[in-house]
């Protein structure tokens, strides 16, 4: 019993220290995952904790369990609009892109390290895919708002590319350990099984769990446990039949998260905590598993492998895979740079270790060092690179808080709060005045909070800067309604321009109004047609074209992802004229 208490104390202490240390990481701009990893290494055999942990099977079990929870949570938070924007390029990047990275890195590793080609390509396959845990965590906590095309591509790629990586690692491990039983035909069958069964199981289970979630009545805290346990059941069943459990749980989460009902908010709140617990436990265990001295011994190999992966293999694979999908050059460069490696490569590196593949310890140590290098270099530069490459869009005004009240199992009422800023339209206005526009029909004023207390309103009440006002709103009107409460934001005006124009305006008429010339092929075309020619059928906020010196930027989309408003930035010469 004393041993159990000691074990509980050690694990709880490690988790507690890791969580508290996240405050320091935020100030230093260090990825949170690196903090969990560092605490684990400090507590390990060569650290101050002196804990000896070399159970690779247990580490693999924790890794698989944690990644399943993380991918399920990632799917729950992925909006279907994200899928519409980037499904095709992300799918190509998750298959052909991974294969291209592995091919290039495998050749480099084989000749640079002077090892057998099968071992070199196995190393490349292990680190060839981006990591969902790292991408979801670092992008959503980076402090910058990426344009939707870039963020959607990175998030979907990380959720979809695990089957290809697992396939390549499994095939190459089998080729080394049991060459007589491995062949091209077996690899192709495995690929079809991994992708096909993963998609089938994921979509079927996602629809089933979404249906059950909508129909069953449970205590609030049990909804998320039902989804988590259902996701883990799906993960196990898909793997047992030869499908990709990771792909299955991600797709199931995607369907559940986009099938809104009275339990969705409860599920998301609890799953957020479970995902953080999974990430912390995963990186703590991986930190305990590694020996810093071995990492230093193989540091130069890892540095070379990591540098080639970040600067050559990943950029070339991205460029050759998705340049045909109308990405701007700066977007391709950023997607190339944010090829984050994390827990997935380390978990995959455990596979050859457990099978006793000769040289697998070298693969594990180099993989671990490459992951640390990726988190240190790429993870810490996410916001800086985004600003330098101009893939950031200004934060849009949004509700301060949202609360759903379900009147029936299918009828929700959404209450949202808005902070009144100085210089906004709401300042010195009556709360009811904000709902009079035809655009906000169905909106209702609910409460006004001033200095932490609810204020009784009457006809003479006027809102002041610092007030928090609650309204009942249609679900798709929150951001548009929030603009009335936002003050003057120079960054947004500088980015989008001072004026707005409708997407059905003609390019030549707009240019003539400011004494500018358009290209002959642009004459008579509506602005929306020009955006469609340049960016395809799925525009995103921040997309920009230039007509006769006028910068026109997509400012707002409607609920169907169609352009609603365009921002207009007029050159100084035209303004003077």
TrEMBL record:
Q: Which residues cross the membrane?
A: 6-21, 28-44, 56-72, 92-113, 119-139, 184-210, 222-253, 273-290, 302-322, 334-355, 362-386
The topology of this chain with respect to the membrane is: Multi-pass membrane protein
Q: What are the GO cellular component annotations?
A: plasma membrane
Please name the GO terms that the record assigns under molecular function: antiporter activity
Q: Which GO terms describe its biological process?
A: proton transmembrane transport
Superkingdom assignment: Bacteria
Record domain Transporter-associated: where:
492-572
Main subcellular localization, coarse class?
membrane
UniProt entry keywords in alphabetical sequence = Antiport, Cell membrane, Ion transport, Membrane, Transmembrane, Transmembrane helix, Transport
Q: Where in the cell is it found?
A: Cell membrane
The protein's name:
K+/H+ antiporter
